[in-house]
Design goal:
Blueprint lengths: L2 H12 L5 H8 L3 H6 L13 E5 L5 H9 L4 E6 L2 H10 L6 E4 L11 E7 L7 H14 E12 L5 H16 L5 H9 L9 H11 L3 E8 L2 E7 L3
Helix pairs in contact: 6-9
């Protein structure tokens, strides 16, 4: 990922680390469905599955996985130390691993039962998304699952405009302060979403035989990809 862009994203999200979780619920009209719809589909023969959360931020997505697998071993990676500080506090008492690094470049040395990500990968270019999907496939155990709850691009410019307009209206009516709303809209500059069709194509080209869209609401979607046994 471009280093200068990394630093800008890191600063932008680090500055809202303490209020990130509460803002998610106000900024995402389908918050619960986006984060939780695919979790009941996850199965593991182990009571201590290994989970990697990329772009983990405050550990919000990981917290839902922990409800499903209370004895899971979780690794959280994010560019922002400030965000991971919140995650460390959230998971105080758990022996989880925290990595401050760019997950597109980090050399992961172990394999995982599940790789998860929420509202992070849409910041990557198309080339980096495909490269990341190949990496995720390589570090998943046989039968492992990748879950991506993210923002996607409509293949229709007209629909994309309507989605964006409705979302902006939702944010403006969310109860957030004018300053927070302005900062939210400013962070859109770091977005580079891709269509669901592109996600499906890249995931299958990366090796995943099973790819499905578990949930979709306008430009938010949860994508499920399973590695073959």
């Amino acid at each position: 990922m471009d280093t200068s862009k990394n630093m800008t994203i890191q600063d932008s999200f680090g500055s809202v680390s303490k209020v990130y979780d509460s803002q998610r619920r106000k900024l995402i009209p389908c918050f619960e469905e986006l984060y939780t719809s695919a979790i009941p589909l996850l199965k593991s023969d182990s009571v201590t599955p290994r989970i990697l959360d990329i772009g983990a931020g405050t550990g919000l997505f990981s917290s839902y996985l922990l409800e499903r697998f209370p004895k899971a071993n979780i690794t959280l990676i994010d560019l922002s130390e400030e965000m991971l500080k919140v995650a460390r506090e959230r998971f105080k008492g758990y022996d989880f691993e925290y990595i401050v690094d760019d997950y597109t470049a980090h050399p992961f040395e172990e394999k995982f039962d599940f790789v998860i990500s929420a509202l992070s990968i849409h910041h990557l270019t198309a080339k980096l998304k495909f490269s990341l999907f190949e990496k995720i496939y390589s570090i998943l155990l046989s039968g492992g699952v990748f879950l991506n709850a993210d923002q996607v691009l409509s293949p229709s410019a007209e629909l994309e405009y309507q989605y964006a307009t409705r979302w902006r209206h939702h944010v403006e009516q969310s109860g957030l302060s004018a300053e927070d709303i302005q900062a939210t809209f400013a962070r859109i500059l770091y977005d580079d979403p891709s269509t669901l069709a592109e996600h499906e194509l890249w995931l299958k080209e990366a090796g995943f035989p099973v790819v499905d869209i578990v949930f979709k609401h306008y430009h938010f979607a949860t994508i499920y990809a399973k590695k073959g046994a």
